[in-house]
Amino acid sequence: xxxxxxxxxxxxxxxxxxxxxxxxxxxxxxxxxxxxxxxxxxxxxxxxxxxxxxxxxxxxxxxxxxxxxxxxxxxxxxxxxxxxxxxxxxxxxxxxxxxxxxxxxxxxxxxxxxxxxxxxxxxxxxxxxxxxxxxxxxxxxxxxxxxxxxxxxxxxxxxxxxxxxxxxxxxxxxxxxxxxxxxxxxxxxxxxxxxxxxxxxxxxxxxxxxxxxxxxxxxxxxxxxxxxxxxxxxxxxxxxxxxxxxxxxxxxxxxxxxxxxxxxxxxxxxxxxxxxxxxxxxxxxxxxxxxx
Amino acid sequence: xxxxxxxxxxxxxxxxxxxxxxxxxxxxxxxxxxxxxxxxxxxxxxxxxxxxxxxxxxxxxxxxxxxxxxxxxxxxxxxxxxxxxxxxxxxxxxxxxxxxxxxxxxxxxxxxxxxxxxxxxxxxxxxxxxxxxxxxxxxxxxxxxxxxxxxxxxxxxxxxxxxxxxxxxxxxxxxxxxxxxxxxxxxxxxxxxxxxxxxxxxxxxxxxxxxxxxxxxxxxxxxxxxxxxxxxxxxxxxxxxxxxxxxxxxxxxxxxxxxxxxxxxxxxxxxxxxxxxxxxxxxxxxxxxxxxxxxxxxxxxxxxxxxxxxxxxxxxxxxxxxxxxxxxxxxxxxx
Amino acid sequence: xxxxxxxxxxxxxxxxxxxxxxxxxxxxxxxxxxxxxxxxxxxxxxxxxxxxxxxxxxxxxxxxxxxxxxxxxxxxxxxxxxxxxxxxxxxxxxxxxxxxxxxxxxxxxxxxxxxxxxxxxxxxxxxxxxxxxxxxxxxxxxxxxxxxxxxxxxxxxxxxxxxxxxxxxxxxxxxxxxxxxxxxxxxxxxxxxxxxxxxxxxxxxxxxxxxxxxxxxxxxxxxxxxxxxxxxxxxxxxxxxxxxxxxxxxxxxxxxxxxxxxxxxxxxxxxxxxxxxx
Lengths: 292, 335, 278
Prior knowledge:
The structure holds three protein chains of three kinds.
Chain A: E1 5-14, E2 17-27, E3 32-36, H1 43-50, E4 58-62, E5 64-67, E6 70-71, H2 77-83, E7 88-91, H3 105-117, H4 121-134, H5 140-144, H6 153-165, E8 171-175, H7 183-200, E9 203-208, H8 211-217, E10 220-225, E11 228-234, H9 235-240, H10 245-252, H11 269-281, E12 290-291
Chain B: H1 3-29, H2 35-39, H3 46-55, H4 62-74, H5 88-123, H6 128-142, H7 145-159, H8 182-188, H9 192-228, H10 232-239, H11 244-281, H12 287-296, H13 300-328
Helix pairs in contact in B: 1-13, 5-6, 5-9, 5-11, 6-9, 7-9, 7-11, 8-9, 9-11, 11-12, 11-13, 12-13
Chain C: H1 3-22, H2 24-27, H3 65-101, H4 103-117, H5 121-132, H6 136-163, H7 166-173, H8 178-214, H9 226-235, H10 242-273
């Protein structure tokens, strides 16, 4: 089966500084693909490029960026706007700042429904109430009339998830969706996300630095470091027999619930040198790869 | 702003006004120079001076004078104008509508221009419109309304006469209004020829008053809008498929408006104060024009009445601005 | 133009103006008061009927416009420097007091500023000038009395910001007295702001002089100031528009120069003093 998303040789630089190098990704329909790495590895940037939301001064090129067989490179602004929110959606990182503080919840939920599905005001409202029920929010009618600052972080993240699923997209980019939340709330949110994902068979690009979450949630994993992907494998494979030294180091630096008493190990310095030489050997942007 | 805050602000108006009254009084009575000397025409005799002094109660002790004046003012009696021999209150109220119409026209012009330019600079960031807006803002802020007024007269009144630069309405036009709110009346009685005429007369003075405010507004809107465009919630609506124009107008602008409202409030008072000169330059019959005339005629009661009128206007504007925040930002006044 | 160049342009122009003002009798081709009733309303040299005798033409009394402009720079610079410095010192002193000591002193000064702000500044200056009588000293007093609040508000706010900074807190903990803290910690941080405000105030002062001249309250008729030239030119604007245009141009360029200097200084000082560079 052809993948929902296929990326090959994605390069991105800002002010001649390479941020992403030869990134390749492939996500099958209905699959959760984890994108892990330390902060600064470029994982968030991959998600942003996918949505066409890279910074204005970024230069992007790629040999292939295909969503459901459709070439996303050189897509017109209009075509991209039609696709975003409907076919590809985003669950943002920080629920506390991701909602417009001066607007009520209702217009912030119904806008996608009205824009992309052409629903009327009443129909969109009804649908929004259904979505809020899906994400286990009580009294959805009341919540719709509230402002973001009147809701808790967990509530807001549920609303953001409801917004992302509103138009039944085929792909959702979830950018560290639980990092800003309390641990207890995190668990509920992840369970909810998994439930909805299963119900609608949505593919998710799950960006995180938390290997524990990846182990529980993801089907496949790509490990990022220094703007490139050092290893990609099924989740089971990766945790059982990590191939790359960096992946092993990353795993070793993560606390394991199943092996209490293990000491945490920092990333060894010898590895840094190896990574640097590997990165230097990477090819630059493929000549002829179309500029974004 | 909660109702309690609003009430507190309203109560503060009283001491502020009292302070203003004291300063007006002190300024005109205690500062070196005899107020009567200011009032008398050249060549008056000593007896004339003494008569005048007694007539206006200026021979009594200063505290008594102040008390008497304040008591009159509290009852709405601002005395009689020396030069025009009319009740000050009546004079001021007769001229106030013209000034209010001019200020309204100017503020509408300033806000429209400032908003559009600020939005344009962000919408076409790093392209020529941004450069143009920056240049305009620099000039508009540096050059005060007084000079703009003279410039307009010079360029659009004399060198290339396209608009009237004097008065409020052409006296040859048959228009007998019942009130002093000419433009409002013309609008509601369907006299659109008169309305056009009034607007043509108001355009240049209003533009002179509006330009400095429009310029600083453009700058503030541009800065706060650009900042809003970098917020997370804008990232989300971009991911929802909003177009750039829709993001600016529907999402970012409303968040960027709060500093713009603050600025408009602060500068609106400058704008109203600017009518003093602009109305004189354009021979526009409002209270600003009256004020300069009063000063030149050394018309003490009229000056006092007018300064107090301006102070009340200023305070009212500041209150209105504070009340506007609550409408714009739901977080204000929330626990 | 970047900040450095703007500051340079503004500074250079003001310096030039100062030189013109000081050396006016040496530079001006004519006596600014000398009337020549046979050659009134001469246009500038580049226009028809212009003459090289009067490079920028003559006014209604046949006085040389160029010479009057040069002498007008004297009045402009004097008013600008004296008034701005006095207003700056008064406002800054009160602003420092209010910001640094807080409490009742702050409440009193802030309340005073608030009452002051309830006046229309232009009207107030005109009333003041009417009370004090015409003259350059009147212009200066009117500006100082009205515009000290600009300095006071901004400096007070800045001192409050500085006071909350760690280095002031640490100066307090090592037992420095208020004067020492003001001098060693706060003054250097407030100084660039003061220079900026001072520069802007000079531009405002030049305009206020013009405004008071416009209301007939600035100086006696025998002194040439840009404001009085505008006021005279206004009466003949339909016959000889340049009589109003030329002094206006002088004022506008001067105001732009003070603005450029002020903005330039602020921008140059800013990344070092306060916000980190964007």
